[in-house]
Amino acid sequence: MNDLQWNRRGHDHGAALERDLGYTPVYLRYNSGLHVSTNGRELDTMLERLVSEWPVPVDELVLLGHSMGGLVARSACHYSELGDARVWRSKLTKLICLGTPHHGAPLERGGNWVDVLLGVSRYSTPLARLGKLRSAGVTDLRFGNVLDEHWHGRDRFELSGDMRNELMLPAGVECYALAGTTSAEGGSNSFGDGMVPVESALGRHDHSHMTLAFPEEHQWVAYGVGHIDLLSRPEVYAKLRSWLC
């Protein structure tokens, strides 16, 4: 995935929000091979420079992230609060996450199990090495790592449970979560959008202290929608527009 894929099937959420609400879209291309927290730190720095060098004073900043992008945005918000006060952070009013695996994606967990199973035999070990070509960013999707301490000092291909410590949503920011499901309305949401379960995209967790506090009115599920379709479906855009009006 890259920034060009915001334009899908003749639609671009950013361009449409510019047309309808007057936002100026700025697209981020980041190295998805790096850890999410590494990209989060870099985004923090880039946003500070963006706001300081923008040709007119910036009144408001909104972050809209799809999939891993939502994790990178949350990470950037965290790292902006660790050092000197960031101007961009004071301008941030809303954070919207589309299909973001806040608590991980089963496909990456399945890949981790495949690594382990292939490694038990000398005949399949070469295939296990191929599995370990997955990038740091992709393995962060196993549980939704957003901080350095979520991965630092650990073998990212070792089979382990969720070792994350909690990271709440950024304070003073209106946060929204939009999930997709390939099921029809009224059906089971268990498979989510084909990549990210609905519960993960909405920040829900079996342990209450890990659940992200998206207000109920800031959560929405799009039915009959796959993970990539979140970038182009008209009902998804209509919901985004209503949240930003």
Number of separate strands: 6
Order of helices and strands: EEHHEHHEHHHEHEH
Binned strand content: 5-15%
CATH superfamily: Alpha/Beta hydrolase fold, catalytic domain
CATH fold naming: Rossmann fold
Overall mean pLDDT stands at 86
Shape summary: globular
Question: Would you write up a description of this structure?
Answer:
About 11% of the residues have low confidence. 35% of the residues lie in helices and 12% in strands. The protein has one domain: Alpha/Beta hydrolase fold, catalytic domain (Rossmann fold), CATH 3.40.50.1820. The two termini are 28 Å apart. The longest helix is centred in the first third of the chain and has 18 residues. It has 245 residues and is an alpha/beta fold. The chain has a four-stranded parallel β-sheet with strand order 3-4-5-6, sandwiched between helices. The chain has a two-stranded antiparallel ribbon with strand order 1-2.
Quick overview of this protein structure:
The protein is an alpha/beta fold. It is built from 9 helices and 6 strands.
